[in-house]
Write a structure and sequence with these properties.
single chain; two-stranded antiparallel ribbon; 5-stranded mixed β-sheet; Glutaredoxin
Length: 170
Amino acid sequence: MSWKKSFRYSLLAGFLAVAPGGCLEEDIEPLKVGIVAPPFTLTLLDGGTADMERANGNGHVLTFMASWCPCSNDSIPLMKKAHARYEAEGIEFLMIGIQDAGSKFEKFVDKWELPFPAGYDSGDRIAHTYGVTAPPTTIFIDREGKVKRVFYGNIKDKEEEFFQWTEELL
């Protein structure tokens, strides 16, 4: 075997040895259903604050999104529709921008004219705490502050399920 071929095989073997573990600095644990939602404070784009330090007697729908993500863009109309339907019943919606530039996320929120609060998760610290690895991810938290459900991906074609999951928070 030539030295070039040997080198290629060695390089490939080295890559395969590293690839399964990836190059992440930290492992992100998925959020477990039934636990009390981890506390966080998030500065909102309007200057206010979202405080998830304790259950306030309301259900919460947290959605982690990014401006560049087609599935995030596809999911917003249903989020707005659900917010209009459940806001009066005490369900609070919050969009959290992840894996994005803050200015791009702010333009994204403005473009969609969100009727509910949004904030940018600088450094994705809240996303990591909540086990979120990619947008869109939606987390349903009940009135006692416990994680009821976690949904990964586009909700555009999940209207019936989305409304059912939100009603479980009432």
